[in-house]
Each structure stands twice: as structure tokens, then as C-alpha cells.
Amino acid sequence: xxxxxxxxVFGYLLGSISTAIIVCRVLGLPDPRTEGSRNPGATNVLxxxxxxxxxxTLAGDFLKGLIPVLLAQAVGAGAPILDATAVAAxxxxxxxxxxxxEGGKGVATALGAILGLSxxxxxxxxxxxxxxxxxxRISSLSALTAAALAPIYGWWFGLPGSYQLALWFMVxxxxxxxxxxxxxxxxxTEDKIGTDDKP
Length: 199
Fold this sequence. Notes:
The chain is an all-alpha fold. The chain has one domain (3-187). The chain has helices at residues 3-15, 19-26, 42-49, 51-74, 79-94, 107-117, 119-136, 139-156, 161-177, 179-187. The longest helix has 24 residues, at 51-74. It is globular, with a radius of gyration of 16 Å.
């Protein structure tokens, strides 16, 4: 089996490990797929599990995207393999083989993968999220804004074409996974950060 296949499969399998579900089980919290928005991600865990559980979930999801890309870089993989590994980790989070292919929306995992590909793009996207979160206090709107601008940041920082293609693919899927949030935003019913969360 070639190293490329090993890296891509590893990326997908690591991405398929649902941090939210594992954290909730370890801490004795409800399954995130049955509580709140029923999304196994940090924002939903924050709603019913508190800040500590959400922070651990966020860190785990972020590392799932970053570690496979760093590993691919460490073994000298070229740009196409780096891109494929990043996308595989992201897809693993969205459609995890270990959890019935029902995963989260991919914000933290995408950010980790993008950090591995381009730290400048990741930092710009993170800064956008933080700015929007401070101004509007709506996590989904902050994520959607950062995602929409990420390809522009990629162009601005001169990413190679293959990197930009991977970036566009992840952004398109991320926006698609937020379609229910988009409907709520248009209806004015989307929850704000901190709503009904525990200390």
C-alpha cells in the first residue's frame, strides 16, 4: 500500500473519531446527538455540557484536522497528497465511519486542516471568526463568514492551485452542513453564543 493511501486513510479514520461523543461519555453527559441542536460539535456541547467539555471537544476536533496534515508533511508528501489528507480528515468528521456517518459540521476540523496547509489563511479565518463572534455573538454566522472569506484569503496569500481547490471544497461542504443554521439566521431564530450554557 502506498504512503499516499496510508496518509489519506489515516486522515479519514482520525477524523472519524467523534470528540464530542467521546468527551460526553467520559464526563457522563448526554449524547450530543440527542441534545440541543443534536450536532456532535463544540458549540452544541457548550449548550448542555459547559465550557470545559466544549473546550476539550474543540481542541480534539481541531487536532483531528491538523495532525494528519502535519504527518503528511513530515514524511515529505507533495501538495496533492497534503490536500487529499486534509480533505479526508475533514470528511471523516462530517461522515464518521465509527458513528454511522453522522458527524459534526466541521468548523474546528477544517480550521486545523487549513492551519496545516497554510498558517496565514487559518489565522485570518480565525481572526474573522473571533471578530464576528464578538460583534454578533452567533457562532454559525461567525463560522459562515470566516468560511466564505477563507478562499479569498487563500488567493490573497498566493496559495498553490491545489491548495485552493481543497479549500474551496471544504468551504462548500461546510456551508452545506450549516444549511439549517442559515434557515434559522434568515428567520431570526438562531441561538447566540452562551445561550443556555453551563459555567
